Amino acid sequence: MKRKKYLLIAGGVLIVFLIFMWGPSGFFYRTGEPDYCNSCHVMNPQFEAWFMTGLHRNIRCVDCHLPNDNIINYTIWKGIDGMKDLLMFHSGIYSDDIGISSHGKDVVRSNCLRCHEGMVSVINTEDLDCWTCHRKVNHRFPSISMAEIK
Q: CA-to-CA distance for 46 and 39, rounded, in angstroms?
């Protein structure tokens, strides 16, 4: 009897998961689009910097910010990060100056190296973050002081 209960629960979870992934609304894919990421007002500066700088404007947020080594890892982390982001946003416990976690930095770095494999194959990338040199990819507009304008 207990085993049957667990099988029913597991089956229900699987059905909900499948509907979420490939249902008529395509919610799983829609949540990977930059417009969806920008639907939380705290993401406006990051979205505008991504859109206005032109760097990587043709790729989606999830291409950099989720592991893209395999679909299982991608799906698991999309669920974990998505739920964390939703809970933080709707509970109001997010920082106004959104940063990236150490896990997030590792994911972004590995995606940079994966996509730009040909270019970085001749560079020693050990212990370096790509955004140390490539500052515009950190979704911040460069600050300009009045002293620089004069």
A: 12
